């Protein structure tokens, strides 16, 4: 797996290069000290994954991520000195197309090294790149339980896309919303708070045993699959064992078996194919299904996969998705 590293700190750059180079299945193919240099090098030699810092001269990591995602798409992992101190910048980078974020490990920090390598391999699994480098074919408000549920799956670029949708939904939405966003466990609560800051609907992490309620948005915690159980409530499970958890496919398939009577499945921007299989099952069962269009997707991977297998009844630009959710929630079909 070919790795590129972008960081303006010589110490961090060297530490990351050593950590990656010690792995038999990973190879560092180039280094860059700013975003502009990284954009140019991607045009010449595209890696399988970029380890991207955020704060750099000439061009920062957010803008570099945005340009690379549009011009020469490839998976990007944000690796920066302090993730917790710069949550807004991390989510901006994820909205631009980065898939995840992790703190820069120092040489000799075994735990930091382990977490970084786990992130790298997890991203390869999510994005559909095998190790050979080849592609594979807010407060808890008590409300009434809903018979209608909007299921949204997103990955790279998802946080900003989700913000665009949720900020347009009314506070009295006649449906519940469940979101599966590929995000690290540590950032899930930050994501919920960030999204809730501009949404009229209450947004919180889903808890074990929650029911889906009208006018409430529940977000899956990282590290486990979020599913509907036989009782119709939400549950966390580590089965099936996948390199990425939560899985959009797992949620969609469980909703079809045990979820509310009316379902609207939506696939947003993201790399890989997660969600396309489950969306097709929803479509074949007669439920409404939507995929984000290419022009408004930061990464047109998951929506493309859904479109290619005929899983999406509609392919919509992002600004039209919230409007369609509202229309569906007030219709009888």
Largest sheet: 7 strands, parallel
Highest-level CATH class of the largest domain: Alpha Beta
The CATH H-level homologous superfamily of the largest domain? Methylesterase CheB, C-terminal domain
CATH level 3 topology of the largest domain: Rossmann fold
Spatial strand arrangement across the major sheet: 8-9-7-6-12-13-14
Report the helical percentage: 25-40%
Which class of secondary structure composition applies to the elements?
Answer: alpha/beta
Q: Number of domains in the coordinates?
A: 2
Q: What pattern of helices and strands is seen along the backbone?
A: EHEHEHEHEHEHEHEEEEHEHEHEH
Structure description:
It is a single chain. This protein is an alpha/beta fold and 333 residues long. The chain folds into 2 domains: 126 residues, 3-Layer(aba) Sandwich (Rossmann fold); 183 residues, Rossmann fold (3-Layer(aba) Sandwich). Helices cover 37% and strands 20% of the residues. It is built from 11 helices and 14 strands. A 7-stranded parallel β-sheet has the order 8-9-7-6-12-13-14, with helices on both faces. Strands 2-1-3-4-5 form a 5-stranded parallel β-sheet, sandwiched between helices. A two-stranded antiparallel ribbon has the order 10-11. α4 links the parallel β4 and β5. α6 packs parallel to α7 and α8 packs parallel to α9. The radius of gyration is 19 Å and the shape is elongated.
List the defining traits of the structure above.
11 helices, 2 domains, 37% helix, five-stranded parallel sheet, seven-stranded parallel sheet, single chain, Rossmann fold, alpha/beta, 333 residues
């Amino acid at each position: 797996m070919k790795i590129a590293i972008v960081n303006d700190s010589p110490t961090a750059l060297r530490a990351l290069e050593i950590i990656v180079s010690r792995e038999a299945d990973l190879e560092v193919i180039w280094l860059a000290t700013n975003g502009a240099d990284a954009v140019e090098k991607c045009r010449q030699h595209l890696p399988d994954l970029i380890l991207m810092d955020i704060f750099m001269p000439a061009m920062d990591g957010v803008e570099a991520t945005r340009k690379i995602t549009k011009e020469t798409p490839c998976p990007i992992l944000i690796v920066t000195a302090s993730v917790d101190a710069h949550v807004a910048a991390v989510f901006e980078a994820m909205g631009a197309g980065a898939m995840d974020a992790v703190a820069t490990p120092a040489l000799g920090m075994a735990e930091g090294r382990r977490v970084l390598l786990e992130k790298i391999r997890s991203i390869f699994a999510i994005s559909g790149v095998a190790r050979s480098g080849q592609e594979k074919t807010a407060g808890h408000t008590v409300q009434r339980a809903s018979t209608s549920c909007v299921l949204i799956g997103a990955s790279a670029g998802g946080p900003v896309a989700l913000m665009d949708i949720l900020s347009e939904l009314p506070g009295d939405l006649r449906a519940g919303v469940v979101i599966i966003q590929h995000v690290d466990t540590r950032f899930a609560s930050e994501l919920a708070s960030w999204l809730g800051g501009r949404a009229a609907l209450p947004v919180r992490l889903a808890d074990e045993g929650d029911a889906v309620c009208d006018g409430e948005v529940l977000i899956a915690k990282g590290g486990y699959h979020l599913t509907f159980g036989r009782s119709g409530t939400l549950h966390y499970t580590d089965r099936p064992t996948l390199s990425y958890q939560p899985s959009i496919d797992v949620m969609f398939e469980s909703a079809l078996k045990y979820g509310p009577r009316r379902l609207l499945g939506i696939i947003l921007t993201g790399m890989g194919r997660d969600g396309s299989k489950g969306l097709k099952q929803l479509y074949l069962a007669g439920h409404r299904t939507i995929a984000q269009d290419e022009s408004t997707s930061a990464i047109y991977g998951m929506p493309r996969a859904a479109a290619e297998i005929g899983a999406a009844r509609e392919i919509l630009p992002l600004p039209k998705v919230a409007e369609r959710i509202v229309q569906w929630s007030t219709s009888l079909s």
